[in-house]
Design a protein that fits this description.
By secondary structure, the chain is α+β, with helices and mostly antiparallel strands. About 10% of the residues lie in helices and about 25% in strands. It starts with a helix and ends in a 19-residue tail after the last helix.
């Protein structure tokens, strides 16, 4: 009898030890229930009637001054001159209404011809706040199309007129420049989004400097000039 009791006591102790160890080693239950299924941050948001947003990238206001990598380099000439110095480059503001420079300022002399950088249709030719402004919608650049602006310019074209790349559309105005010296402010927009107008120019046009004569190498038997 005593032997049977000892076996029963030992068996109970073993079970108690096993149960205690199991309880201690088990992970604690969560304090709060999950609010819903886990969301992959790299996956696009579900369609809720608005645009699909890539959560892995920063959200950008469509109306803000964001550079468009799809801007085609279809420019064939500079607006003024051959390779005019850039007095001030494109400085996109942090927000739509913040300070910045929504275009580039190119050195130009009063009365110098202003040319259309690329082919398109004149969408505006007139005065805005005392400055002569010309806008040209570029052909085949999507919806809304790219639109270049030039100011201050005395227009020689009218709204609705089609212009070719390199065509003279006016002359540099005498007044309205915001530069310390005479300049042309050249801008680029798609809808309400400001872009860098220099992105319209291909590398060969951006990097080409003014032409200069090189010395002729000496030829044996030829007298020096």
């Amino acid at each position: 009898m005593r032997a049977k009791r000892c076996v029963r006591v030992i068996t109970r102790l073993v079970l108690l030890v096993v149960l205690t160890a199991t309880a201690l080693l088990a992970p604690p239950p969560p304090l709060f229930a999950a609010a819903g299924p886990a969301v992959d941050a790299s996956a696009p948001a579900a369609d809720s009637g608005g645009p699909v947003v890539d959560r892995a990238r920063p959200v950008v206001d469509r109306a803000g001054p964001v550079a468009d990598p799809a801007v085609p380099a279809l420019g064939r000439v500079w607006p003024v001159g051959t390779r005019p110095p850039v007095l001030r480059g494109w400085e996109p503001p942090a927000t739509v209404y913040a300070a910045g420079h929504r275009g580039v300022d190119l050195t130009a002399s009063t009365g110098a011809p202003v040319r259309a950088v690329a082919a398109g249709t004149v969408s505006f030719a007139g005065r805005v706040a005392g400055r002569g402004v010309i806008s040209v919608e570029l052909a085949g650049t999507g919806d809304p199309p790219l639109r270049t602006t030039y100011e201050p310019v005395t227009a020689s074209v009218e709204k609705g007129e089609e212009v070719a790349a390199g065509q003279v559309i006016g002359t540099v105005g005498r007044t309205g420049s915001h530069c310390t010296a005479t300049c042309v402010h050249w801008g680029l927009r798609r809808g309400e989004t400001y872009l860098d107008p220099l992105s319209l120019l291909p590398p060969w046009l951006l990097n080409r400097g003014p032409s200069r004569l090189l010395p002729v190498p000496a030829v044996p038997g030829r007298p020096p000039e």
